[in-house]
Structure formats: structure tokens, C-alpha cells
From TrEMBL:
UniProt xrefs under InterPro entries: EGF (IPR000742), Ig-like_dom_sf (IPR036179), Ig-like_fold (IPR013783), Ig_sub (IPR003599), Immunoglobulin_dom (IPR013151), MEGF/SIB (IPR052108)
Cystine residue pairs: 247-256, 336-345
Signal sequence range: 1-22
PROSITE patterns: EGF_1, EGF_2, EGF_3
Top-level taxon in the UniProt lineage: Eukaryota
CDD domains registered for this protein in UniProt: EGF_CA (cd00054)
Keyword Isomerase recorded: no
Name recorded for this polypeptide: Tyrosine kinase with immunoglobulin like and EGF like domains 1
Pfam families associated with the record: ig
UniProt lineage: Eukaryota, Metazoa, Chordata, Craniata, Vertebrata
Keyword Signal part of the UniProt annotation: yes
Organism from which the protein derives: Rhinolophus ferrumequinum (Greater horseshoe bat)
Key words of the record: Disulfide bond, EGF-like domain, Immunoglobulin domain, Signal
EGF-like domain mapped to chain residues: 226-257, 312-346
Length: 381
């Protein structure tokens, strides 16, 4: 592997420094298979076409297990890394269940845009399992990490942050079969990997979490947090340093106002999930502060459950509430009968191109293929 020394790196940093946005980088983990031999991770970059010269000079995509915090036995034989062009890299060929547990990172993009994306894998056979692995919260919020008892043990539970002792919960403090860690008034320095482990149990049986704390309060960004976020839709998260929306998989646009066609992802919907089953069973990790989620239309710890009627989007977190005969599409939201449009199909009239939100919110992202439902322009709430 070629590593660029400082003399070469400096001009790249200079060239790239005017571009604020996070890299278009997605780390996918295949949760459909629990056997380590069939598990794989793929990291996809949407950058090469756009950034031509930069990409030719830039360091390659990297994908590896990061054992600095979660230390597990070294995978043996080592998993195989396969590159497909400069934009796609896959890690597969694991042998033991313990090879999968822990943190994986993909690093991509060049210069100032070099970004690392993390994925945290929990063993399905663990004593404790996270109700939700990644949590993104704002500075000053209260974060609650919840570890669900899967195989009970009669011992206390130890919480760790970044691998160091943090807190003990008495075994009788479980609520509804869950051990909760409440973190009031979180600060960016509280970000990191958290784990809950039964005392004297194997660390491999822990519930592992990732907490991401934005550097500003809700809806704010910038130095001193004086700037207002654009109002990211559909579950997009406002980047605290550049004010841009990191859109959930399956959504695009400066405010994530547009749904991709089913099975598509990437900043301009340029990537496609494997055709069999679409994005079922895949978890998508994006640059911070987004973290990870299922693809649009899917939910559950293995991302194998379709959204319940009336719900849509990544992890099915959005609600349709369609009016006037609109039907809920779990990938894009309300699909309106002709004559109606708007997020809830609440607007009548053929078209309002001149002042409609759809036309004003379409920016430089329309090179990809979109579902084109005008109704997916904004999110409820
Ligand atoms: C490389 O990726 C392309 C899509 O980007 C795919 O069509 C092709 O089959 C891949 N090749 C290998 C060897 O995986
Ligand atoms: C965990 O490690 C990260 C990266 O080194 C650091 O930024 C963060 O403050 C640490 N968090 C805690 C709670 O120690």
C-alpha cells in the first residue's frame, strides 16, 4: 500500500479544503447470515467519478477491524480483503463468531474529506444485546443506552466506555429485562464505544454501543454553534461542523428531501443493493454524526423486517399519515393519486412548479435515478 508523505499530502489538503461536505462513504454489513464464513462487510465510496484528479492521488479505501477498544482474539485465518476498482472494498472469510464481534472501520476520501465510518457488531448469541446500537444525540441531551437481557446471569452488570470501567448496575436494577445507562448532559467527549457485560462473563457476550454526540445543541452547527441547520428531513442528521445534512440511506438532496428508487443508496442514489432481496438484511453506516441504520423500508436488529403499514424510511422511523387517498410506500412515503401532492397528499391542483417546494429543493443532486414522488419532498414532524 502506498502511503503519501507530507510533501504530497499538503497540496491535496489545500485543494480539498474548500469542500466542506463529508465523504460519500457507506459501510455495509450483511446481517442476513449469522455464520461467520458468509458474513461480509463492504465499503462503497461515491467519490471517484466526481473527484477525478483527487481520487487518482488520494489514498485507497481501507477496511479493517479496529481492535483498539474492543479487543477480541485476532481473526485466524485472517479475513480476505477484495478491491473492486477504487470505489469498493469487501472484507469476508471470517472463521469464528468471535472474529465478527467489535468495531470495524472504513476510511475513504482524500485530504480534508478523508472520513472514517464505523460499524459495531454484536454477537447474536450474547448475554446482553443493545436495543439500538448507534445513538446520535445533541450536546447537552440525555442519552439512554439500553441492554436487553438475552441469556440471564445472576450477576451485576458492568458498563464500560471506550473499554474502561464506567459504572456498575446491580442485577436487581434491571427494568423490564433491560439494563439502562443514563448519561445526562452529554458532551462531545462522551462519544465513544460503550459496553454492558455481566460480571465474570466473557466480553464476547457484551452488548456494544456507539454513542455519537454532536458538538452543538439541536438544529445548530458551526464554531460557537451560532449557525442554524437547514432542517434535515427524513431522518437526516445535521453535521455539526459543516452544517450539511447526512442523509439516511435511500434519501438524497441538500435536505434529504428526495427518496431514491427502492434499493438505491449513496449521496446521489448512485449505488444499488444486491438485487436479491434489495437492501433487506443490510445495515448501513454513514459518516458521523449519522451512525448506522437499516436501509429505507427495513427495520429490526437484523434489518429483515419490512416496515409496518403507515411507516417508511430507514429503520421505519417515519410515519406517512397520507390524506386524500394517498397510499404509504415504505421506501418513499405517501404516493398520491393524481390531482394531489404534498408530503401528505394534502395539496390539490396539478402542479405548482413555480413555487412548489419540490422544484425549489432540487439542487445539484439530480444526476441519480429517483423515485420521483413529489410527496417524498419533506418529512413529517
Ligand atoms: C465490481 O463492482 C461492480 C459494480 O460496481 C459489479 O458489477 C462487479 O460485479 C464487481 N466485480 C466483482 C469482481 O465483484
Ligand atoms: C473515546 O475515544 C474517543 C476517540 O479516541 C474520544 O474522542 C472520546 O472522548 C472517548 N470517550 C470517552 C467517554 O472516553
Amino acid at each position: 500500500m502506498v502511503w503519501l508523505g507530507p510533501p504530497l499530502l499538503l497540496p491535496i489538503v489545500f485543494l480539498a479544503s474548500h469542500v466542506g461536505a463529508a465523504s460519500d462513504l457507506t459501510l455495509l454489513a450483511d446481517l442476513r447470515r449469522t455464520e461467520p464464513q458468509r458474513f461480509f462487510l463492504t465499503c462503497v465510496s461515491g467519490e471517484a467519478g466526481a473527484g477525478r484528479g483527487t481520487d487518482a492521488w488520494g489514498p485507497a479505501l481501507q477496511l479493517e477491524k479496529d481492535d483498539r477498544i474492543v479487543r477480541t482474539p485476532r481473526p485466524w485465518p485472517p479475513p480476505q480483503l477484495a478491491r473492486n476498482g477504487s470505489q469498493r472494498i469487501t472484507l469476508r472469510g471470517f472463521s469464528r463468531p468471535s472474529d465478527l464481534v467489535g468495531v470495524f472501520s472504513c476510511v475513504g476520501g482524500a485530504g480534508a474529506r478523508r472520513t472514517s465510518v464505523l460499524y459495531v457488531h454484536n454477537s447474536p448469541g450474547a448475554h446482553l444485546l443493545p436495543d439500538q446500537v448507534t445513538h446520535t444525540v445533541n450536546k447537552g441531551d440525555t442519552a439512554v443506552l439500553s441492554a436487553r437481557v438475552s441469556k440471564e446471569k445472576q450477576t451485576d452488570v458492568i458498563w464500560k466506555s471506550n473499554g474502561s470501567y464506567f459504572y456498575t448496575l446491580d442485577r436487581h436494577e434491571a427494568q423490564d429485562g433491560r439494563f439502562l445507562l443514563r448519561l445526562p448532559n452529554v458532551q462531545p467527549s462522551s462519544s465513544g464505544i460503550y459496553s454492558a457485560t455481566y460480571l465474570e462473563a466473557s466480553p464476547l457476550g457484551s452488548a456494544f454501543f456507539r454513542l455519537i454526540v454532536r458538538g452543538c445543541g439541536a438544529g445548530r452547527w458551526g464554531p460557537g454553534c451560532t449557525k442554524e441547520c437547514p432542517g434535515c428531513l427524513h431522518g437526516g442528521v445535521c453535521h455539526d461542523q459543516d452544517g450539511e445534512c447526512v442523509c439516511p440511506p435511500g434519501f438524497t438532496g441538500t435536505r434529504c428531501e428526495q427518496a431514491c428508487r427502492e434499493g438505491r443508496f449513496g449521496q446521489s442514489c448512485q449505488e444499488q443493493c444486491p438485487s436479491t432481496g434489495g437492501c433487506r438484511g443490510l445495515t448501513f453506516c454513514l459518516p458521523d454524526p449519522y451512525g448506522c441504520s437499516c436501509g429505507s423500508g427495513w427495520r429490526g436488529s437484523q434489518c429483515q423486517e419490512a416496515c409496518a403499514p403507515g411507516h417508511f424510511g430507514a429503520d421505519c422511523r417515519l410515519q406517512c399519515q397520507c390524506q386524500n387517498g394517498g397510499t404509504c410506500d415504505r421506501f418513499s412515503g405517501c404516493v398520491c393519486p393524481s390531482g394531489w401532492h404534498g408530503v401528505y397528499c394534502e395539496k390539490s391542483g396539478l402542479s405548482d412548479w413555480a413555487h412548489g417546494s419540490a422544484s425549489t429543493e432540487m439542487h445539484d443532486t439530480d444526476e441519480g435515478y429517483f423515485g420521483g414522488h413529489v410527496s417524498a419532498v419533506a418529512a413529517p414532524g
